[in-house]
Amino acid sequence: MAGMELPIKVVRQQISSAVDLIIQQTRPRDGTRKITAITEVAGMEGNIVVLTDIFKFEQAGIGEGSKVLGEVKPTGVRPMFSPRLEAAGYKLGAEMFGKTIADMLINQPPTALSNLSIGSMYLT
Is 93 helix (H, G, I), strand (E, B) or coil? Predict the structure, then answer.
């Protein structure tokens, strides 16, 4: 199969079906390494790989010695692969993922709701 060209859609489908989770690590200005996002690869929608943030780093400020302060917080979205984790013996409670969708909708300004994605459903 060397030298064989695969269509980009096929490559994306293979990757999206093989990868469940992306953990992004970033090096901010202070030189430390921080996990800034934990994102689920939710599958494909047409030719697009659908990514859903489960946890995001929220910077709280700059501390002593220019150290970046903050914490990784849940976005309120429970990953779609949770049942597979539970079947393997890893029980993750809903409280681990934070806010409910209702809380997210209530606490968002109207402009943020236009970009909200829930699973593979998009509000425009």
Answer: coil
CA dist 106 and 16 (Å) reads 31
Q: Are the C-beta atoms of residues 5 and 20 closer than 8 Å to each other? A: no
How far apart, in whole angstroms, are the C-alpha atoms of residue 38 and residue 54? 6
**Alpha carbon 16 to chain centroid distance?**
14
Question: Comparing C-alpha atoms, which of 95, 31, 93 is closest to residue 67?
Answer: 31
Alpha-carbon distance of 33 to 102, in angstroms, equals: 33
Distance CA 100, CA 82 (A): 16
Distance CA 55, CA 91 (A): 18
* CA 79 to each of CA 27, 37, 66: distance values in angstroms, whole numbers, following the listed order: 26, 14, 34
pLDDT digits (tens, 9 = 90+) for 86-109: 899 888 777 788 765 555 566 655
